[in-house]
Structures are given as structure tokens and as C-alpha cells.
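Question (not urgent): is this output format expected?
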Amino acid sequence: MQWFKKHFITLLLVLIALAGVGLIAYPTFADWWNSFHQSRAVASYMEAVTDLDKEQYESILRSAEEYNEKLARKGFMWKLSEEEEKEYFKQLNVNNTGIMGYISIPKANVELPIYHGTDEAVLQIAIGHIEGTSLPVGGENTHCVVSGHRGLPSARLFTDIDKLVEGDHFTMSVLNKTVTYEVDQIRIVEPTDLSDLTLEKGRDYCTLVTCTPYGINSHRLLVRGHRVENEQGDALVVADALVIRPLFIAPFIGGPLLVILLVWMMLASRKRRKRNMTYERVRAELEEKKNRKGINRELQRKGLSDDEEIHE
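Got this back:
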């Protein structure tokens, strides 16, 4: 108890420093943690895809293409019935996790899994495919629409898609098929305005949707791309997010080291002050003894003792 009282201020400062480091490091750590789990989800999807035989693969792809053809005839269904939802969630559900593919946006440093639907549980950690729109396998008379949050403290997601300009590319990877889109239209609309998310005859579109302005979220940012030739051919999804970037882990190594250094400096400073106080006290005592000896010698020279001098 005595030790706690003696070091209370030091402990309080350490706790404050740790809380500060925690607040600063949380967004980076949370983003890295989510990226790690997103990578694991993608890796699991890749494994499931590679385990498919040719017949299974062709069946899944053909079913998705037929689904898109049906949408092209009927038009987009913004509100699905229970039966339509069941049919939708069966499509491209290779490993029964809800992942239908993967999106890569080099300009925004985005590589994220795409899940069925836009439930909040999905949008907190990944990108959601807006149900009722075309599946991301490409083809004439299709328009795939995917949505993602921006500005979350726990994950970047679509935070940087406002960096995209016309002419930039992004890709959708589904099964072992890659489709590339070139940005050709960027618009800000009201949340209820769906006029830019419709099908156009003979066109192959994909639109990225997120909230805007940043932190206010009163409108929707729509970044549309049209299908172009792949730059690097078809390729399986690569889980690059598994790479641990030094920028991500630096706060978690540097933060504690900074706190340890701060505590060490505080304790060293206190120890130095204590040593200086002890030195000054001893020095004063020695000086007092020296003075006392000088007085005694003077008294002896005069033939007097301390008591006699006091008596006088």
C-alpha cells in the first residue's frame, strides 16, 4: 500500500499514456485485423474454387449467367420475395460462406471479398452485392452494383474510392474468372435515386456505391465502369491483405516502447532527484561538522570549552 501511494502519480501517468497510445493505434489495428480476416475468407474461397471439378465449375457459372439473363428480361428487382431471395443466395455460393467473389481497386488500394446482400453485418467488414442486380460475372445486358462503407474506424473499405477518376480500372474476380471495368461515370445522387443503376441494352456495367460527403453521408457516390479487356488475363484471387505491412504494425511496437521509455525516464529522473537530495544533505552535514571542528579548534586556542563559552 505504501509503495502504491509513493508511485501513484507515476502509475497514473503511465495509464494515461497507455490510453493515448490505444486511442491512436485502434484504427490501424482494427483495419489490420479486419484485413487479416478478410484475407482468410478469400483464402478459404480460393481453396473451395480450386477443389471444384470442371463440371461443378461450369454448372455454377452457367447458373449465374442464366440468373443475369432472367434479370435482363424482367428488369432489376429492388425488393425480392422470399422465394427470390432463396434463389439469389444460392448463386455463386461456392463454399457456403456468402462470398461470391473479390474486388480489386488499385487506385484506392482495395482488395476485398464481396458478399451476398447488404446487411449491416456484411458492410461492417466487407463489400456487399446489392441483391436484385446482376451477378459479377459480366456479360451483355448486365449491371452489377456493389456497396461499401467509408470512414469506418475499424476498416477502410470504400473510403478512398473518391480518388477514382474516369479512365481508372477495377476488377471483379469470381471463380477463376476476372472481369475488368474502366470508370466512365462518377455521380453524387440522393439515396433514393436509382436512375443510374439500371440496365442498358448491350452494355456490361459495374457500379460502386458508397456514402458521401465523408462523415455526413447524406448522399450516395456512384462510380460506374464499363467492361474492357483484362490487362493480365483471368486469374485466381490473391489474398494480398495477408501481407503484414510495417506501417500497420509500427504503432503496436513503437507505442509500448514509447511508454516504456517514458516510464524509464520518469523513474530515472525521480531517482536522480532523490540522489541529488541525499548528496546535498550529506554535503550540508559534512559542512556543519567542518564548521563545528573549526569552532572547537578556536575555542581550544583560547583555552575555552563549549560549556565555558556558553556560560559566559
